[in-house]
Amino acid sequence: MGHPDIAGRRLSKDAYAKNFADLHPPLSAHEALVESDRCYFCYDAPCQQACPTSIDIPMFIRQIGAGNPLGAAETIFEQNILGGMCARVCPTETLCEEACVRETAEGKPVKIGLLQRYATDAQMRTGRQPFQRAPATGKSVAVVGAGPAGLACAHRLAMHGHDVTIFEARKKPGGLNEYGIAAYKSVDGFAQAEVDFVLGIGGITVERGKALGKQITLEGLRKEFDAVFLGMGLQGVNALNSKHEATDGVEDAVDYIAEIRQAKDLGKLKVGRNVLVIGGGMTAIDIAVQSKLLGAEDVTILYRRGAEQMKASGFEQQLAQTKGVKIKHWVSPRKVLAKDGKAIGLECEYTEEKKGKLGGTGETFRLKADMIFKAIGQTFVPDPMKDALVLDGGRIKVDASRRTSLPDVWAGGDCAAGGQDLTVAAVDDGCRAAESIHEFLSA
């Protein structure tokens, strides 16, 4: 970047290490035992009902309390093979922990996420896969995308004895777990360690640098394999549709988060002094907080509606504010302000809602910025399908078993219609599809 106010090395090496340390340090064995004792072990557990993968939460907590973390891990992995990452990135405060009876009674839920991490980390430290592969069936399945949905699908299919080939467009498997989450949520290369753990069951081959519509085609995969699962996520980024959007200093938040995740030296990453983030979801929070941690002096999130409408959870919004990020609600960007081909600010308009419709008030103002991040959502790019699949709302239409309009093709995760855009939901999609594929191949 040629922008004078965008630079690296704003902080010391020790400051970077401290800022990007584990957001939620793991529980010690004693802390895990004490926390597990807080669980009421509800018979009709609301926490389990709130979990998209239906993990038997009271059971695994009871196993931890009995001094059996490996047994607890197996209970978790039976439902969610990516339980280790989900323990780190799931918005537990709006899922299992929000439903916890302790939360209802005391406002202090059992720390389910940290207990899940305690158990899954214990299993992964052994280096052993808790499940065995069934005898080979001679059937083969292609999985497009090595993200949470694809990995979960591949693992479950391998458990049933099918041969799986995963085609991944990037250099590393893992999808958003590797490239798309804040670095402080998953440290020490955990995403790749989890990929290795999943692949440890055997029967799964990963081919990197293979993107649908480029190196591979849906038609070709259908001819070569007995079934296909599509889990390639969202490749497109929504545009601001603003003047000067292509100006130096205007960045896609998703791409920059990937740069942070892959950086070997955080000090080499350039960051502005005055950073604006447009959006209200998890990506907006992640890029805003990390910009602050990289040394930005002033970081502001701009969201067109109120705090209650933000997709980012209350915990995430609070995290951003405690890190020094400001959040301006009821604001919409109108025009990128540029000078000599470089962003110097943003013209915005106050918004309001009338009769259920959002609109501008006509009152505008300007904010200075040398770096502006677009975090207004990603889009599905259907071009590689060439109209072969029926779409719903811009994504692939699927039924309850995640089957598409083609009899031998399934889809799950963010590329499928009706998804929740959560890692845990993508895992559930992958598992549901795998069971349906197994039934199809066994017929």
Care to describe what's here?
A hairpin with a 2-residue loop joins strand 11 and strand 12. It is built from 17 helices and 17 strands. The protein has 443 residues and is α/β, with parallel strands linked by helices. The strands form 5 sheets. It has a 5-stranded parallel sheet, with helices on both faces. Strands 6-13-7-8-9 form a 5-stranded parallel sheet. It has 3 domains: 102 residues, Alpha-helical ferredoxin (Fumarate Reductase Iron-sulfur Protein, Chain B, domain 2, Orthogonal Bundle), CATH 1.10.1060; 159 residues, FAD/NAD(P)-binding domain; 141 residues, FAD/NAD(P)-binding domain.
Please, how many helices?
A: 17
Largest sheet: 5 strands, parallel
Strand residues, percent = 15-25%
Count all strands and give the number.
Answer: 17
Shape estimate: globular
CATH class category of the largest domain: Alpha Beta
CATH topology of the largest domain: FAD/NAD(P)-binding domain
pLDDT averaged over residues: 93
Q: Please tell me how large the radius of gyration is.
A: 23 Å
The low-confidence runs, each spanning 5 or more residues with pLDDT under 50, are: none
Describe the structure concisely for a colleague.
The chain has helices at 13-19, 29-36, 46-50, 57-65, 69-79, 83-89, 96-99, 101-106, 112-126, 148-159, 176-179, 190-199, 218-224, 253-262, 282-293, 314-322, 423-442, and strands spanning 140-144, 163-168, 204-208, 227-230, 236-237, 250-252, 274-278, 298-302, 326-328, 331-339, 342-354, 357-368, 371-374, 378-379, 391-392, 395-396, 409-411.
